[in-house]
Amino acid sequence: MDNAKSFIPKFRSGLQDTNMAPLKEFNRRILRRSKSVSDLKPLSKAPSKYGLLSNRPTCIKSTIANGKAGSTTNLNAITSSKPYINNARIGATALKRNVPTIPESSLAAKRRKPEVKIEKAKPEETKNVPKPARPPKPASYDYKARYNLLVEKYTPLVATHKETKQQLAEMKSESEKQESRLKSSETEKKNWESKADALTRELQQLKDKYNSTLILLQKNEQLLAMEKQKYDAECSKTEALTTELKELEQKYSTSKELLEKTRNELLEKTTATLTEVNRNLDCKLECLKECKSQLSESESIRRELHEKVQNLKGNIRVLCRVRPPVAHEYDRSLCNINYVDEATIELRNRENHKSEFIFDQVFPPEASQMELFEDMAGLVQSALDGYNVCVFAYGQTGSGKTYTMQGGQTDSTVGIIPRSMDLLFASIKKLKKVGWEYTVEVSFLEIYNETIRDLLENHPKHHEIRYNEGKGVTVTNLKIQPIASVQEFHELMETAWKYRAVASTNFNEQFSRSHAVTKIYINGVNNESKLVYRGSLNLIDLAGSESAKTSSNERLQETKNINRSLSALGTVILALSNKDNHIPFRNSKLTYLLQSSLGGNSKTMMVVNISPLDENYGETMNSLRFAFKVKGVNINAKKNKTYISSAE
Ligand SMILES: Nc1ncnc2c1ncn2[C@@H]1O[C@H](COP(=O)(O)OP(=O)(O)OP(=O)(O)O)[C@@H](O)[C@H]1O
Q: What mean pLDDT do residues 489-509 have?
């Protein structure tokens, strides 16, 4: 900005410096010449009149300011001196020609003027020159003399005129040069002016910028002042906090010392307590070991007792269950059934002929699924203890076999199979605490028309039953799935029942015409006692036990196969009870399959399901007779006591 300010005076002084020198020189030259030509006084005065030869810088400025007009004026001023010369020339020419045609008065009038002026100039010219002796004035008639005098007078004038003319030409050329210089100066001036304008604009912009920056600066100063105030406030706060911190540090060191002291005291106390606790713990561990061995002993005692109880109950237990009439049977006449006691059932026919059967337990229609399962619970424990358990649901079609085994949809109506699984996994959990680890596997199959079908395999495969002394009975290509929870079991059972339904051409019919076998493989290992138990639970929903007489021709073969297998089952159980040398297991697929589960250390339970309807009396009697046969052979002393039948 300072540069911009200082530039304008510099420019002006530069303009003076550059243009003044030639002008001054020109003036000086003119003045010099005018001095030498003393008789041209008016000429010397002319330039000063227009200021061209002035030495003052202001004159130059005005000349530059006036531009071309000024220079032209000067030239005109110079040339305006021409009348003096012209008048002299005219006079001289007139003398030369010597023609007195011009009237004297007019000539005199014309001559008088320059004469006066020359004469006026003379005293100035001759100030420093000694005056020459004036020649005598010729007589008025002596024209020659007068002429000579005139010639003498005007000859120097002509010379002066020539010189003046030459000077004028020089001045003119000088003026032209000056003019061109002026023009270039003007151009230069314009350039400088435009530059000056640009610089002025720039200066203005800079000024604006400066002002805005100044405003910004002021604002920043204000902000800075505010920040400073805040900073001061923070500083005072920090000081207060520092003081507080110092106090806290002091408190902390005091507390730390106290804590250290307390900690050491506590450590001593705790160490003493810990030593005491360790001592007690050792004692308790000893006790625990003792308890464990006692528990193990108790466990084996419990198993022995359980075994004794089961033996007392009989290895083959037969339960009888009468189902209630279902909705569509309410209008039908019911069979005359009398529940004599919890083990005795009495039936009367239309002729009031009485038949009484005693089983291990008789369940009337109102008996719940839970009541029925109470008798079954002991068998689940036996399976965990390494026994093979078989549970059959026997009875005519629609007597309630599937309901007994599977149950209904609600929790209270679930049957033997789901309840067994619940109990099994709950017992496994308990036994784990006394060192038993169990693995559980499951398989689902059905025997329809003496053919085995794997219910966990969607695509039918050929299955054969094999018997191996070491392994027992196995079924080829049968899928045996390991399970870790009841949930997994339910998922597999759902799949099995779905495949069973898909395979059936007539769902309801085939369901009742095939034996459905659910087998649970239970392996237990006790890592402490190194005992291993391998048991199994065979839960069988047998095919409907219809007599061949009631079957249609289409179903005859099915019925024959069913009856053959059911009769074979009865025969096998009878032979086992009689401890016969030969047990005819291979008489049917069902008995062959259950060979390992029925013989040896096996436990069997049969639930004979009967219909309450009078129309089913004949089939009901057949079922009860079959169950009696199975039950009766197993009982020794109690045999007679448990079986009374007027029908025999
Ligand atoms: N104890 C019971 N309480 C209530 N309803 C029962 C009972 N037993 C059976 N039912 C009902 O009786 C009907 C026939 O029972 P279920 O299907 O179990 O007979 P089933 O012997 O298995 O027949 P199928 O041989 O055709 O399979 C079913 O509707 C079932 O719900």
A: 74
Q: How confident is the model at residue 83 (pLDDT cuts 50, 70, 90)?
A: very low
Average pLDDT over residues 552-579: 80
The 3-state DSSP class for residue 540 equals strand
3-state helix/strand/coil string of 319-356: EEEECCCCHHHCCCCECEEEEEECCEEEEECCCCCEEE
pLDDT band at residue 502 using 50, 70 and 90 as cut-offs: low
Q: Is 512 in the pocket of ligand 1 (CB under 6 A)?
A: yes
570 in a labelled binding site: no
CA angle 520, 526, 529 (to 5 degrees): 145
> For residue 508, what are its two tokens?
């309801």
8 A C-beta contact, residue 604 and residue 372: no
Residue 76 has a pLDDT of 41
**396 has binding-site annotation:** yes
Is 398 annotated to bind a ligand? Reply is yes
Q: Please tell me whether 200 is known to bind a ligand.
A: no
Amino acid letter, residue 594? L
Residue nearest to ligand 1 atom 11, measured at CA: 400
Count CA within 13 A, CB hemisphere, residue 464: 3
Beta-bridged to residue 320, according to DSSP, are: 362, 608
Ligand 1 centroid to 626 CA: how many Å? 20
| CA nearest ligand 1 atom 9, residue | 400
The verdict on the CB of residue 482 being under 6 Å from ligand 1 is no
0.80 surpassed by pTM: no
Q: Give the H or E element holding residue 336.
A: strand 336-341
How many alpha carbons fall within 13 Å on the CB side of residue 362? 22
Mention every residue, 6+ apart, whose C-beta is less than 8 A from residue 400. Answer: 321, 323, 609, 611
On whether ipTM exceeds 0.90, the answer is: yes
* Dihedral of the alpha carbons of 469, 475, 481, 484, in degrees to the nearest 10: -40
CA 415–ligand 1 middle distance (angstroms): 11
To test ligand 1's pocket by mutation, which of 366, 403, 507, 555 has the most ligand atoms within 8 angstroms of CB? Answer: 403
Measured from the CA of 544, which atom of ligand 1 is nearest? 25
> Which domains occur in the chain, in start order?
2-205 (no CATH), 314-555+566-642 (3.40.850.10)
Report the nearest-CA residue for atom 27 of ligand 1.
512
Radius of gyration, CA atoms only, the chain: 76
Buried b or exposed e, range 317-350, using 16+ CB within 10 angstroms: bbbbbbbeeeeebeeeebbebebeeebbbbbeee
Which structure tokens are listed for 139? 């007589």
E strand or H helix at 147 = helix 143-313
